[in-house]
Model the fold of this input.
Amino acid sequence: MPDISDPKRVAIAGATGYIGGRLAPRLIDDGYIVRCLVRSPGKLAGRAWAANHAVEIRQADLADARSLAWNLVGCETAFYLVHSMTSAGAEYANRDRHLALQFASAAREAGVGRIIYLGGLGETGPDLSQHLSSRREVEEALASSGVPVTVLRAAMIIGSGSASFEILRYLVERLPVMITPKWVSTPCQPIAVRNVIGYLAGALSQPETTGEVFDIGGPEALCYRDIMSIMAQELGLRRRWIIPIPVLTPRLSSYWIQFITPLSHEIAKPLAEGLKNPVVCREDRITRLIPQELLSVRGAIRAALCKMAEHHVETNWSMAGPIPGDPDWAGGTVFRDARQVTVEAPEWAAFRAVCRVGGGHGWYAADWLWKIRGWMDRLVGGPGLRRGRRDPEMVGYGEALDFWRVVGYERDHRLALRAEMKLPGEALLEFRIEARGARQCALQQVALFQPRGLFGLLYWYGVAPLHNIVFRGMLLGIQREAVRIAASPAEAASASGEPEPA
Done:
């Protein structure tokens, strides 16, 4: 395959993830043509930057080197920001290595000039955690085909919506007294997400970074106990009492993290395991090649909290991972709960009211029942309600809303949510809006449940009596909120110029 690479065209594998979703708009601003290689193109449909003329969206299977090579043709540089820890459970290390090998082979065949990879900071050696060892294996796999690889190794990334930041924030917010593993005394050199993006983008214009490995971190190294104390101060909380004990294993720690924070133990376990290793920069060459103002730990935490307060969280850890296809509702038993009301408001107002479900706003009715269901879900290993939502007003395809995920989005017309709580079956909650003139619309709410076995049938019949409280109350609540939105001058004024959800 001939090398026809354009130095201004770069590919991003992982553009729908936490880092990729922030890097792409930065590269666009820097004048690059950005080709996003994504598994689910719909996850980018709601991002404002994805509509830019400099963005090319390609559906790509990272496990298929041949088809991936065609999608990489014309790209001088490819960013590899893929990490399957959120979706592959205990097999994430093997899957990561396999995908990296396929990507390296495809990059060579497509004539890509170099690969840039964001890896994990940490000492090398036999005591390295499985999580960090996996990152090293990915580095080796990416370099296996001979394409030069630039590796940036980071420790804890502090930014609104990052997994590490969310663990830290929830633990500090919810626990005035913490019994912790001994890793709270392990040194760590966190880095602000804006500085990570700065280094990734800066590497493109610095040929000296080609084929090199760099440690990247903020200006200070602290132990996790000190980082927790800073978080408490920035949250305006009283002093947190931290009691380290030597008997908490990574597995026990991961279940505790799952109970207190929105993250599942499958994600928390490799993160908790990695905390046993000191993660401090051993060299700082990158600071001279790509100079930028590095935020302190306090500055990074403060910036992240400000973004949250302003409801301007660009990406969230829960946005990564595959979107399962809708179940085949045509076969087997499918239970259906359909309701409809007429709303004395235009369809845009009804849709805006629908999009406010979940998170801090609640579910319009019987929130206490939703909270009980959330606690039950957490006890059996589900996400519960603590994932919340990225933005209180806007949603996009692939985003999490408590223990639901957006799997269908048509602005002003349709929002479909697939259940991710632990269930003996598959569940879908869908809202459809049909205009009936300039000031009226029909709002339809449909809940579908496909049971799995006898327990699935018992579950449906057990919760069916509550549907009149939960679903009917939700529908009437959305109806009231839509009327209120339509009557608000500020809401009406913003309706015509509202950007697509990001």
Remarks:
- Residues 6-318 form a domain with the Rossmann fold fold (CATH 3.40.50.720).
